[in-house]
């Protein structure tokens, strides 16, 4: 589906340019559109900001009838509808907060649609006033019989073009964002067996994918290059986004000092830019918002978003953020899915997210317009307990991790650098970040690939034997030597239940005891960034991406990349 030309190819491109004012397709967009037009079931994994919406909005315009989009959040739906209406596309929403009258109106328009004779599968006339896209929350499918039977009429009239499931990883309990109502979407295939399904996600590790396929009752996946094969067409775009510059910075110990650091950072690098500061608790969001505003003497215009903020205020905040009244939103993860704002120039993490995938999603809200943006994690050792998933790896990542470890433990340094070269594109100097703009002699660059894997290996070995590893312990381990290899007996230190059977050789002297001496906190920050870098690369089962993670410690910067 990626290369071929189809009868609709010209029309797709024309509509993309005239309706959406987008010049060219990006990533696998065209392929997904083609598979959609061809009536296939599809799973498409594309990074946040990659442009998933276009993959169904464009075919929706070309097909007769209505495309049903299931989306988890009202704010996301509202943004999409506003966006579509701006382009003159007829889109409606049915959510828990849709009024009775509105629902009735939509129902009768849908029924009208169902009554209209099917004019064939391909309609290249002008956009008709019929509803082209209907957005619903998953509860509508799970709980509203009125809705599902109305939909049945539309289906019977051949007027339901396809069903799109946005944020489809929410169907799986193995993912980080499980939603019970999503699980109930399994009835879709039963109720409407002939309507093609498009499942979209930015994060779908192999186990989640498997779960998703089973839950949605889709056929096993086949590659997007196998258009003739039976099965669900699978597209996955690289998750590496080269405009995002990741950093882990040491977090000062007092709350005031954290605010001061963040304020200075924002004023120095991002004055007047839009950004998000993710905090762990509702209270933190309020304190940070107030702090940034006070410390900057009102120069940073902040807003607060968390689950307890009233719906009306949430909506108002969205508006103020979009029109620039509010520049920096201090939020919990409740501010998430589907923030359709392209020019988010920075995402700061006041505290580490609960999982790596969560971190990836949250930081991924920066730079959706493709311009350079910063993602900074403020890290301090006290946060280490929350990082256990980083250290131990998530259940999902472990098989993959084991495979990688096996690979690395047998690989010679030659094959390791060959591995690196294959991905050299991802490591090209960006020319914008601190590392690339500093004079080269002031930057320390280290290849810590092997070291990072060794750390993970030690951790894995100890964990497997029932021990527990904290980041602090790892940092001590790393700092404990000045150059050269050393052995570590596993068993999880004092807390370990038993002695590890294996002895793991580490050669981390280069990092912490070589030319650059690191303090304990800096070492921990370094470890965090190494672990993050590796998890982000490896748990997202894509081959062509890598994330640049930098650890800045005083004047020294480490570039953490494969080579
Ligand atoms: P996702 O849902 O994958 O996170 P969106 O569909 O919201 O991403 O798209 C992110 C942004 O990229 C939107 O502003 C959209 O208009 C823009 N966009 C999508 N496709 C393209 C493209 N091919 N070229 C340029 N911009 C695009």
UniProtKB/TrEMBL annotation:
Key word Ribonucleoprotein present: no
MF terms (GO), sorted A to Z: 3'-5' DNA helicase activity; ATP binding; DNA binding; four-way junction helicase activity; hydrolase activity
Signal peptide extent: none
Record-level GO cellular component terms: chromosome; cytoplasm
GO term, biological process aspect, one: double-strand break repair via homologous recombination
Catalysed transformations (reactions): Couples ATP hydrolysis with the unwinding of duplex DNA by translocating in the 3'-5' direction
Top enzyme category: isomerase
Domain annotation Helicase C-terminal: ranges: 261-412
Keywords: ATP-binding, Coiled coil, DNA-binding, Helicase, Hydrolase, Isomerase, Nucleotide-binding
Domain called Helicase ATP-binding: residue spans: 33-222
Domain of life, per lineage: Eukaryota
The enzyme's E.C. designation: 5.6.2.4
Family of the protein in this entry: Belongs to the helicase family. RecQ subfamily.
Name by which UniProt lists this protein: DNA 3'-5' helicase
Species per Swiss-Prot/TrEMBL record: Phellinidium pouzarii
């Amino acid at each position: 589906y990626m290369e071929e030309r189809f009868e609709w190819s010209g029309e797709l491109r024309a509509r993309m340019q005239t309706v959406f004012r987008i010049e060219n397709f990006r990533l696998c967009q065209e392929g997904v559109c083609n598979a959609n037009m061809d009536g296939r079931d599809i799973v498409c994994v594309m990074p946040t900001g990659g442009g998933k919406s276009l993959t169904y909005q464009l075919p929706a315009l070309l097909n007769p009838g209505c495309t049903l989009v299931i989306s988890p959040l009202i704010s996301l739906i509202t943004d999409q509808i506003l966006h579509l209406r701006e382009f003159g596309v007829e889109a409606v929403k049915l959510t828990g907060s849709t009024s009775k009258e509105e629902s009735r109106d939509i129902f009768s328009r849908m029924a009208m649609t169902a009554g209209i004779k099917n004019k064939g599968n391909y309609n290249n006339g002008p956009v008709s006033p019929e509803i082209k896209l209907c957005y619903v929350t998953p509860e509508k499918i799970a709980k509203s019989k009125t809705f599902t039977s109305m939909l049945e009429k539309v289906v019977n009239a051949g007027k339901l073009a396809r069903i799109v499931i946005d944020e489809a990883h929410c169907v799986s309990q193995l993912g980080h964002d499980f939603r019970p109502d999503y699980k109930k979407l399994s009835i879709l295939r039963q109720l409407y067996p002939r309507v093609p399904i498009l499942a979209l996600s930015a994060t779908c590790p192999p186990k989640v994918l498997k779960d998703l396929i089973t839950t949605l009752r889709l056929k096993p996946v086949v590659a997007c290059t196998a258009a003739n094969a039976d099965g669900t067409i699978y597209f996955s775009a690289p998750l590496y986004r080269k405009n995002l510059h990741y950093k882990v910075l040491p977090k000062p110990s007092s709350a005031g000092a954290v605010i001061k650091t963040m304020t200075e950072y924002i004023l120095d690098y991002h004055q007047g830019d839009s950004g998000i500061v993710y905090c762990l608790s509702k209270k933190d969001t309020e304190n940070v918002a107030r702090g940034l505003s006070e410390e900057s003497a009102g120069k940073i215009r902040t807003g607060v978003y968390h689950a307890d903020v009233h719906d009306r205020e949430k909506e108002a905040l969205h508006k103020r953020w979009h029109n620039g009244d509010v520049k920096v939103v201090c939020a919990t993860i409740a501010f998430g899915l589907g923030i359709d704002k392209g020019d988010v120039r920075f995402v700061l993490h006041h505290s580490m997210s609960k999982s790596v995938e969560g971190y990836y999603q949250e930081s991924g809200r920066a730079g959706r317009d493709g311009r350079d943006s910063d993602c900074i994690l403020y890290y301090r050792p006290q946060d280490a307990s929350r990082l256990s998933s980083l250290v131990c790896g998530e259940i999902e990542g472990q098989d993959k991790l084991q495979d990688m470890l096996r690979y690395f433990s047998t690989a010679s340094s030659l094959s390791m650098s060959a591995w690196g070269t294959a991905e050299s594109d991802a490591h090209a100097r960006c020319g914008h970040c601190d590392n690339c703009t500093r004079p080269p002699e002031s930057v320390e660059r280290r290849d810590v690939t092997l070291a990072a894997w060794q750390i993970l290996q030690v951790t894995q070995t100890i964990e497997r034997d029932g021990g527990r590893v904290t980041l602090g312990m790892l940092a001590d381990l790393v700092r404990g030597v000045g150059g050269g290899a050393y052995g570590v007996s596993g068993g999880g230190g004092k807390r370990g239940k038993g002695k590890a059977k294996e002895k793991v050789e580490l050669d981390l002297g280069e990092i912490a005891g070589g030319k650059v001496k690191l303090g304990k906190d800096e070492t921990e920050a370094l470890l965090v960034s190494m672990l993050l870098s590796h998890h982000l690369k490896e748990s997202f089962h894509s081959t062509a991406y890598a994330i640049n993670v930098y650890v800045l410690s005083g004047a020294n910067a480490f570039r953490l990349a494969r080579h």
